[in-house]
Amino acid sequence: MVTIYDIAKKANVSPMTVSRVINNSPSISEKTRKKVEDIIQELDYIPNKQARSLISKETKLVSLVISDISNPFFTNIARGAEDKALQAGYQLLLGNSDEQTVKESRYIDLLLSTKVDGVLIAPTGDPSLANLRKLAKRRVPFVFVDRYVEGIAADLVMGDNAETTRKLVAHLVEKGHRKIALINGPSTASNARERLLAFTDALTLNGLDLIPELLIETHFLQDNFSEIVRTLMSLSPSGRPTAILAANNFIGVNTLRALREMNLQVPDEIAVACFDDPEPIPDYNPFLTVAAQPAYDMGYIGMQMLIERIEGTAPATNRKVVLPSQLIVRKSTQRS
Amino acid sequence: MVTIYDIAKKANVSPMTVSRVINNSPSISEKTRKKVEDIIQELDYIPNKQARSLISKETKLVSLVISDISNPFFTNIARGAEDKALQAGYQLLLGNSDEQTVKESRYIDLLLSTKVDGVLIAPTGDPSLANLRKLAKRRVPFVFVDRYVEGIAADLVMGDNAETTRKLVAHLVEKGHRKIALINGPSTASNARERLLAFTDALTLNGLDLIPELLIETHFLQDNFSEIVRTLMSLSPSGRPTAILAANNFIGVNTLRALREMNLQVPDEIAVACFDDPEPIPDYNPFLTVAAQPAYDMGYIGMQMLIERIEGTAPATNRKVVLPSQLIVRKSTQRS
DNA sequence: CTGTTAGCGCTTTCAT
DNA sequence: ATGAAAGCGCTAACAG
Fold this sequence. Notes:
Chain A has 336 residues and is an alpha/beta fold.
């Protein structure tokens, strides 16, 4: 391996001079700089970040901790985050938690040892608090994306859950639905809590009754959706929902699948809408009505805030960026 | 920051003893081990990987360099790669090349400086050779996924392009098509080359003429697909294709979009099929007929081979793993 | 403008 | 079973 010592020897200067050239120090004569740079070229020298980090205490590594990169919502967050990171000279470490706090915890331990400069995280839910405290204790800056955790402060970029829920409910009501079921994420997740709250508000606002049987709490990633949907549709004809609102794209798609298994026609027999677009390439074969959140922007803005925190250019108070979603009405709520 | 010196002092042992405890060295008395471990717990000590890497020459960092994480094909590769990496104690750095060799090159330079232990890469095409040589020169192991580059050897995991192409063409022929257009990727990419070769073979095999106007070479990511499709469909009625085969999901979806702009009905006026599924969650609203490659497995197996190379447990000769694809016939090729 | 010294946190090598 | 010394590749702090 070529080190600054090899360069120094060949150039008849001290290693420190080589270090200065690498770091574009101004106090280097043009002549020496040229000489050293030529030899760097010749020997194809690349600085060793490990050694540099040991002194500088920065690694130029950041991490994105999300539920599952396979979900187009998180995919786009990742793409936005990577773009911003690279642009600022940071590299992105990817971690999937699969909504499991334990997996998230193991990953955070790794990050702590790797000494990443910061973490952009969509926490699994309130139990993530312990994991985030670990970061805080070691003074590793982190920023929330999509969800936050009570009891620990950080910059936050998320969708406007209240407004988005209102829009979705309003759309369904406008289509004539008066019995709308909500298949929600776990109440330990801030976005699920906010969506539930907004949902009940929206019902009231539209003069609809709140029917407890139609409020389902489940998980964003793993559950027996067939059974959940079957139970909903087995309610007495007068109590059965005519529309289902799913709290994320994964639930939405699985609801669709469950209904297909039951041979129920969407949208004729039941309407379905959800948060987040399951389409990675939007608008190619639209079916599901969705409220699409600007995932790419969330990742990009979140990473931007994180880097500002890392580099100390962020304001002292924590920022909260709330991004609007876009209602995209498609076939799944358009009765023929 | 807590270091082994802090632990050592508090435990009345030498830093070396602490190091031995951390690394599970057998030559430590149970008593000392317990004492040290307790203090590690108490002070919440986490080993510094940077310092360790400086000596051990390994970072437990690997990188995945792909075209674009937003493409579900690559998303699934990433997920497979991350699962395997984490399982083996490695962390994954993500890099998007956007099919640009220059961007890929910049990223490789970063990786070289970060001293990753290995790289799993879907090279942009033959011009990537210089980038790969940089890795080889520094003895950074790499493995090809999806595509390879002539002139440099490495383990490889890819789809069976020949067989997949044959299946797709056979399906279209069976549906009665005799004029099939191929909208292919750039000939600098190995998969595009193999697909073109297999395509012309398949035509011959099925007794169809090879019509040069129906063989389009474009890019996997950026191009004016509207114009390409428009040109194809503007051919004389006798020369116009009745089916289009797209060389990846992105081209497939954009072809669909272009046809919609032109108010041409798929599949009634023209059939479309493509390589790779654009659906992240398969089978939720099937439309496009595709040959789905096992992307998750590609990522997983590729990472596995990479780790074996890194750890020296791989065989001396380079391995080539060719995975079969699955033809999924959907509406876009089923005339009503 | 350039060089010397010391040390980042850890492990290898040799002692004891 | 444990420790002392040296050094991985680099840079901060000082000196000249």
